[in-house]
Amino acid sequence: MSILVGKDTRLVVQGITGREGNFHTQQMIEYGTNVVAGVTPGKGGEWTLGVPVFDTVKEAVETQGANTSIIYVPARFAADAIMEAADAGIELIVCITEGIPVLDMARVRTFLDQKDARLIGPNCPGLISPGEAKVGIMPAHIHKPGKVGLVSRSGTLTYEVVQALTDLDLGQSTAIGIGGDPIIGTNFIDVLKLFEADPDTEHVVLIGEIGGTAEQKAAEYIAKHMSKPVTSFIAGRTAPPGKRMGHAGAIIQGGEGTAAEKIAALEAVGVKVATLPTEVAELVKASMG
Amino acid sequence: MKLHEYQSKRIFAQYGVPIPNGEVATTPAEAKAIAEKLGGRVVVKSQVLVGGRGKAGGVKLANNPAEAEAVAQKILGMDIKGLTVEKVLVDEAADIKQEIYLGIVIDRAIHKPVFIASSEGGVEIEIVAKENPDAIIHLPIDPLLGMQDFQARNLAFDLGLRGKLINQFVKIAKGLYQAFINSDASLAEINPLVVTGEGKLLAVDGKMLLDDNALYRHPDLEAMRDRQEEDESERIAREAGLSFVKLDGEIGCMVNGAGLAMATMDIVKHYGAEPANFLDIGGGAKAEKVATALRIILADPKVKAVLFNIFGGITRGDEVANGILQALEEVKTDIPMVARLVGTNEAEGRAILQAANFPSASSLGEAAQMAVAMAKGEQA
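Above: the input entities. Below: the structure tokens describing the complete assembly.
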């Protein structure tokens, strides 16, 4: 069992004929993900990697029954691609694209509020339910099926923690990168809620970083609603204020968003916060016995 | 990207926000000429991209053109928080009866632009937020609808404005919102917005931050970039497509991924040294990009060791190893280095480094400890 993606996932790839999109589609197919369609406007009727290409997401939904979309289109076209997917009735939209203007995302999020679609990202590695489906760009081989649910604002840092978990024989139910931008579709609390309800997730790992107050809000939620244990790591203890640390959302502003205040908020509600990424796995191991 | 006060105010003025008459000077003589043209009292304001200019002595009143020249003489060339003042704005001095704060930011939690306003303007809004949070008004705006007149009127009433000031305020708030949206700003701020003795509203100071991700559609704004905003090395990195922030430590860090790059800095600190930089080389890690990144790191004379931390997902370990060795062909150096390569083709990558006698580590902890030892001159 898992959350959001699994054996029922019927994936459409938006931007399937682009270099990145095509490469990662191949990787996802090799992992066993059910890729049912691709979309590139103007290339409808073509085939790539054994997958039919359509001009619109709507056709992919109607013809192939796609229920999940992954987006690899360039930043200036990505907001439009997200809205097209939501309008076509896609239930889960995963946007990998980095560098979408924040005001575009403000409009997209307001549009999505009127639709039934859930967005993961943008600027994220996607998500994987090991052994079932991979909808993203993460290296599949470091994962193994298991009972740890993982949610993170980062990409490669997540891989680091997943590797450490797998090294200690701790498999994952689903690992989700929610993205490093200021406005994202799905936040920590949304995912915590899903993990809490998932019978096969026993322990949750939350990986945060500087900027904003998402981790503090997650801490409030954990205190009130989570019965499952949560272990955390927060990146950016040494980050200076006022400087954007790669991710558009990773910036300490007006003294708000420091690692110290996030760690304090999480520890105050009983979450164990690791000092090193590898220590996360040790803490989970100790907790799960 | 940050804009100067004079740039921000000129943008606001294009959207109907009243600003004081004024011009920018780079010499005391120019400041004098502007003061003569304006007539009466002027205020001479240093244009540097940091806060706290007033406290640092970078903002002064002058009663006549001669005084304006003398004051400009003092301010030009002054050092404010490490930045040299190269320009001053000479503005007509306003007759201030009341000071208001009016700003727009993006609220991440509700994913909308939100107005922040306070009748206690003229001071840093963060201080008001801390000491008197009730004095701050929040007004979210639906980005699909834009700001409506009634919202601007309500804001005016909440700020305690009455009479003719209401309509003036509506025009200013809606203008500021348009400036924010049309410039793809992440912050647009008037502080203070003053009520003058004549009963007029006037934007005396202004500030804008722009969304770097949206600059591609604003070449006119991109052209306003001041080279003072960033360190030379940060500029070179930005132009090479690298995400780089200069810090003060001795361990140069080259990492793929922003989160992992931050975590790597934290680990360096954990093992008793300080990171010299944040650097995310992104995916791929081709030799040319590695070489550029290495040159940027090594240009900092404080750097005593370099730590590579690459978690290959799609990036292949052997490609990265070759990239590092090719970069070292181009960038000759005696600075010790250690690489930690994991993920796809990690064994091949490590074999390539080993054949070239390049120190490598299998875990991040081990790599960080080796880099710290190298920086301290110990044998790794």
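Note for the figure: Chain B has a mean pLDDT of 91.
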